[in-house]
Amino acid sequence: MAEADSTIRLTVAQAIVRYLMNQYIEIDGVETRICGGGFGIFGHGNVPCLGEALYPVQDEMPLYRGQNEQSMGFAAAAYAKYHLRRRFMFCTASAGPGTANLLTASALAHANRLPMLMLCGDTFLTRLPDPVLQQLEHFGNPTFGVNDAFKAVTRFWDRITHPAQIIQSLPAALNTMLDPADCGPAFLGLPQDVQGWAYDYPVSFFAKRVHRIRRQAPDPAEVAAAAAALRSAKRPMIIAGGGVQYSGAVAELTEFAARHGIPVVETIAGRANMVATHDLNIGPIGVTGSNSANIIGYEADVILAVGTRLQDFTTGSWTAFAKDATLIGLNVGRHDATKHLSMPIVGDAKLGLEALGTALSGYVAPAAWTDRARAERKAWDAYVADNVAHGNRPNSYAQAIGVVNDLCDPRDRVVAAAGGLPAEVTANWRTLDIGTVDVEFGFSCMGYEIAGGWGARIAQSEVEPDQDTIVFTGDGSYLLMNSDIYSSVLTRKKLIILVLDNGGFAVINKLQNNTGNESFNNLIADCPTVPEAFAVDFEAHARSMGADSVTVANAAELGEAFKRAKAADKTSVIVMKVDPYEGWTTEGHTWWEVGTAQVSENPNVREKHAEWEAERVKQRQGV
Questions:
Q1: Residues 290-342: tens digit of each pLDDT
Q2: Radius of gyration of the chain measured on its C-alpha atoms
Q3: Are the C-beta atoms of 606 and 515 separated by less than 8 Å?
Q4: How many angstroms separate the most distant Cα atoms in the chain?
Q5: Is 362 exposed, middle or buried (0-12, 13-18, 19+ CB in 10 A)?
Q6: What is each CA distance from 70 to 47, 80, 99, 118, 187, in whole angstroms?
Q7: What are the respective helix, strand and coil percentages of the chain, to the nearest 5?
Q8: Domains in the chain and their CATH numbers?
Q9: Where is the Thiamine pyrophosphate enzyme N-terminal TPP-binding domain (predicted)?
Q10: ∠61-62-67 over CA atoms, to 5°?
């Protein structure tokens, strides 16, 4: 029999694992397995077959046992983000609630355009034992179940109903996860009987394959039109998003900006595209931005948005830019490149910047404009320096951020998400090196912080084992999801976790007050169903999971504790109370559209509604 016709008899689960084992990617000239391993919690829906298939390869494809399926998904997302979407992890969960727990994580990966493969148990294809344990019965549609919910939060979805099906579905899922424009999570539902069914698979299906991320060249006509618009600009600006890093276009962005003298502002996802000291880095833009970026953002006449999906926190709900400003969208995704009537350049950021630079040869922005942007950044730096200073002030997020910023290594990775910390980190963190900041604000998901830190640390240990992953979390997110402190201790993936306790959901309380409402049900002290509030002993809780932990009274003590945590070889948790009302970053915010009450008996609510609506005149209309 010819080699091309030879087959090997494997179960579906064994074939999936063997296929993943032989998929590689070339990164900086080195071939690396695309799938870095997996996160798994076994149950009856995946342990007999998929567990059997994974056991023999546990040394080559490590399986990390998480404590919660949702947190496993967060860890997988953070792993992919660290590797700039060039590597991914799979998550496996049993049929029923284990799989359902992954829904939030899949939505997070979808919103952030991150690859993650979910291999989840499903009900029996034969239906002979129906209804089975954990099955949701839909009386009029026996094919419908929990796994169908993932169709809304995945880029690729399939249910394997025959062993041969994976010959088509697995490559399709992989190609989706590696596609720059369509990148996102992929889901394969694996019925419990089908997982163990055997099939004679072509040996060629398991041949080693080396993948490369596609670079789509931009259309010359789109480049020419954008270059003409930029040439006419008196006040040009660049918005640098997370796609700059995914494209590997940081050097091209920096060179393009320097050659043409164009100020650069960053989105939350693009927060570490430039170091803080670069003289064309004018700061973060938008609702959680800086005065410097927002001032020039509103005055800019031509705006080149590179690798950003222009989320409302970037655009200030489309009030951050002048209504008559020209937008140019350089993005590998057509959907993002054409937002709000932008002139599109659909293509890879690296190739697009190179092509646009060539077409723009000889153009330099007016020096007065660039100097003005630099002056605004200098003023913002002075504000931040004062904002993070500590002494005779209430403890604040900003102070903690400043202490860590001063003491960390340039290549340490910072992780934050949801609540007040994304805004405070975005505004106050001074980037020390490229690609070192992960502020998850695509889905703004509470609970990502510690789990994402664990996933990021797993990825970091593969590349930069001597650096640290530093997690900023509030008490609310900590209480929502903290069990991966235990995971990090078990797997010896050290984290430094700062728990900044403000007594509840203080940032939403701030929004509640800012819209004229009374404090209600956000701070624990303001919950009418809580007869008597008491403080959680976060230090003792973290220690019970095996971490070193300490409670500090102020920023000075935090600095000493952080030094000890840096020197330690295991996960450290540092707890500090911060004031829920004082110490917030008050500058640098654009308008943000939230739903305010048009009618209320509270005069403060009516007043704030009027104030909010008065700013709407700045809102840019478009599609």
A1: 999 999 999 999 999 999 999 999 999 999 999 999 999 999 999 999 998 89
A2: 25
A3: no
A4: 85
A5: exposed
A6: 18, 16, 9, 12, 15
A7: 40, 20, 40
A8: 8-211 (3.40.50.970), 220-379 (3.40.50.1220), 389-577 (3.40.50.970), 593-623 (no CATH)
A9: 39-133
A10: 140
